[in-house]
Amino acid sequence: MGTIDAVARGARDDKAIAAAIGGLDARQRRYYRRAAEVLGFTARDANHHSIVTPAGKEFASADSAVKQGLFVRAVLSNPLFQRLLPFLEAKGATGATRDELELFLNAVAELGAASMVERRVSSYQGWLVKLGLAKMAGRRCVLDHLPAAVPLVRYESDEEPIFPNRYDLKEYQEQAQRVASKQEAIEYYVEPWKVAGLPSNSRIVFVDDLIGTGSQSVDYINRKLSSLFASSHRPCLFSVCATPTGIEAVKQYSTFEVICAMELEELVFNHYDERNATFTSTERKNLHDLNERLGQNFFVMGLLVAFYYSSPDNTMPLIWRDGIQYTDADGRENSWFALLPRKS
User: Fold this and answer.
1) What is the C-alpha to C-alpha distance for residues 196 and 239, in angstroms, rounded to an integer?
2) Looking at the domain that runs over 192-264, which CATH code has it been given?
3) End-to-end alpha-carbon separation of the chain, Å?
């Protein structure tokens, strides 16, 4: 809140704002400035200088008690928080874990790289707690009652079209009758955080491009996806392609059923397998040695599979590992130029 007051008093850039508040490093002063803009209290003019908006002027001229209410109202009016509140509300008294918040926010907004997602989730969670909108119960964030000083804030429903939107009892009754009469035929296309609210015995399908060894799929299922659905749901992982090893791993170490459009049989697709006739034994050995020089990868299964957007790490490194320094057979140092560089 100090940023808004600083801009109202004439601070126009990162350094001036930091000087007015005190104790901020370079990253923090950029963050504070951007936060005030996101909440609608400040903006930037044609010269990239910070100025207060009408909401900022109202805030700067208010007393401390009124400022708290204005700040909370600004947070609740922010589109991202409007998506976050129904999610936390649906979690009830159990609240949401950090992983669940990260999964949710990553699905509804472009938050950048994984490290950026973690920092932003920490910030959003901290704002909710500091403003009295949520509390921490162990490692879970639980939505709390809104402070009495906050006026009624209206935000748009985040429901899918198949569900009622007007919060009218008659509409719910009509919708319930429609669902009951066509329960077996209804398919729900919902965002991840709404999965838990699907009817009992629903078959929930998650989509992936490739199941290689299965270890990454199993890890993601057990750490992230399992918390999204109820025990009565029937989870399924649909993959464009999958190896027999990966399919078996997912079935054995998770509750998911597996369906794939194309099974990558080892005899045909694992080019390290001695039974694979694509390469001679000498060619196979040379391929293996070259991939070893490019860096051993735990997930490599001798595949030569790529998608239009990237190459999976189960594919031979010689296809996707770009810019790696290696030593050739004559002992010379070289840099490898990948045919299809992997995009992480």
Assistant:
1) 22
2) 3.40.50.2020
3) 37
Q: Does 170 have pLDDT greater than 90?
A: no
The residues spanned by each domain of the chain are 2-75, 78-143, 192-264, 268-335
CA 234 from centroid of its chain's CA atoms: 23
Name the fold adopted by 2-75. Answer: Arc Repressor Mutant, subunit A (1.10.10)
Q: Give the model confidence (pLDDT) of 321-330 as tens digits.
A: 888 887 777 8
Cα 263 to Cα 270: distance, rounded to the nearest angstrom: 12
> 138: burial class by Cβ within 10 Å (0-12, 13-18, 19+)?
exposed
What b/e sequence results for 84-115 when a residue is b if at least 16 CB atoms lie within 10 Å of its CB, and e otherwise? bbbbbeebeeebbbeebbbbbbbebeebeeee
- Cβ atoms 301, 268 nearer than 8 A: no
CA distance 29 to 95: 31
Reported as a single tens digit per residue, the pLDDT across 64-95 is: 878 888 888 888 777 778 778 778 887 888 88
The H or E element containing residue 334 is strand 333-335
Lowest-pLDDT range, 91-105, 113-127, 171-185, 284-298? 171-185
C-alpha torsion 184→224→135→190, nearest 10? -30
**Best CA proximity match to 202, nearest among 179, 218, 222:** 179
- As given in the structure block, the two tokens for residue 3 are 């940023």
